[in-house]
């Protein structure tokens, strides 16, 4: 399967095999998920995983040959688990499952999410507890490496029994059905297989169920979201430090002694970030004067941002377990010769974690919007109103706070947890579901909103620094200011502002601002 080790990037250039990622079902990292999803890193199946898969597949063959009654292999699904299916109908059973379960609706998932879903599904099957042939994983990887992506609607999964509907849309393409995206064009599943150089796959016993029963959609969204949340949280520290500079804040609140007597890990880390960013500037060593303390959105940054850092760490831990887990049902244990029906497809661990992620990141946006308000209000900033020297004729950055406020308010709605809701399905056979995919999609949207709020705050802070009394800035904050000004000029009079917001957002989302600052002061650990 040498072709599986080849991948074509968006511009058609073959990637170096040294960057390929081997799947063994045990050691996939979030960073590798991001590499495959966003950078199209090539993927292959490790030989050890192939052997494990072959062992569990032989168990399935034996079950069918001996006409044993085993859920999903020789029975129907869900409420139909009491209906026995003959060996002659085993293949049709699996095909029917995929076709009948492909009932997603809404807009298609972004390409990067679909790629992450395919990767995670391949990885969980590679563990060797699902009973499928290695060929099934090779089909998924061939599509990935060729840049062929099933069209998967966003809505329709309740997060138990796994992400059934969206995973069924992925699986359709393996059968030459459904639709796929290739080089920006929407094509039929049959054409997609032709592009990948594959004949339509005929599913054998258990394979349709194994491909559709699991948490890989919410897991895929979650992996990309937690990666983005980590970048966003570090950028939030930069934005906070820049606001401290712009508002002549007091860095004494970030003193290690304050953190030592309340040593939450995130708080300690965030305070260290702020000291690292402000080091080398006047603010870092300035003692309190007539003003002995700042408003909470400056002074309490380590406490609030730090709690978010702790939450992100927790979610990362959950995801790193999940993406290397077997999540379909039933599971086959070749060493013991047993098949066990369980509930690893239930998305509650992810649903709780991803709701938590959304709430935690939303708080970064709330803090940033309040800093925007302080920067724009002459009563709190001591600067010209709305950061324009010709107020009245010019509105300056007035409306940027409106946009930030709208996004913060939207996040308050999105942060309402999905995981506390449940609607029974399958005639009450599946009587509690997680709503994990909804939690995942909400978290992703919250993170994007917060990135735009941070971009606005960075824009306002740079403008405030230009209008304020200049002092020597910290190495990190000075570098952040330079990067912003290299893209967005000082606002001397009103101009069309949305391009500035988009430029600032790109600096945040791409990680270019963070990278430039870390190149200057070292990694924000």
Overview of the structural elements:
The structure is a single chain. This protein has 525 residues and is mostly helical. It folds into 2 domains: 202 residues, Fumarase C, Chain B, domain 1; 236 residues, Fumarase/aspartase (Central domain) (Fumarase C, Chain A, domain 2), CATH 1.20.200. It is 56% helix and 6% strand. It is built from 21 helices and 9 strands. The chain has a 3-stranded antiparallel beta sheet with strand order 4-6-7. It has a two-stranded parallel sheet with strand order 1-2. A two-stranded antiparallel ribbon has the order 3-5. Helix 9 packs parallel to helix 15 and helix 18 crosses helix 20. The N terminus is likely disordered. InterPro entries: Aromatic_Lyase, Fumarase/histidase_N, HutH, L-Aspartase-like, Phe/His_NH3-lyase_AS. One of its GO terms (molecular function) is histidine ammonia-lyase activity. This is Histidine ammonia-lyase. It comes from Desulfofundulus thermosubterraneus DSM 16057. Pathway: Amino-acid degradation; L-histidine degradation into L-glutamate; N-formimidoyl-L-glutamate from L-histidine: step 1/3.
Concise synopsis of the structure shown:
The protein has helices at residues 30-39, 47-65, 90-101, 111-126, 134-146, 164-174, 189-196, 207-212, 216-246, 256-260, 265-278, 282-285, 296-299, 301-322, 348-376, 378-381, 398-414, 436-467, 475-487, 498-509, 512-521, and strands at 21-23, 43-45, 105-108, 148-150, 153-155, 179-182, 185-188, 331-333, 338-340. The protein has 525 residues and is mostly helical.
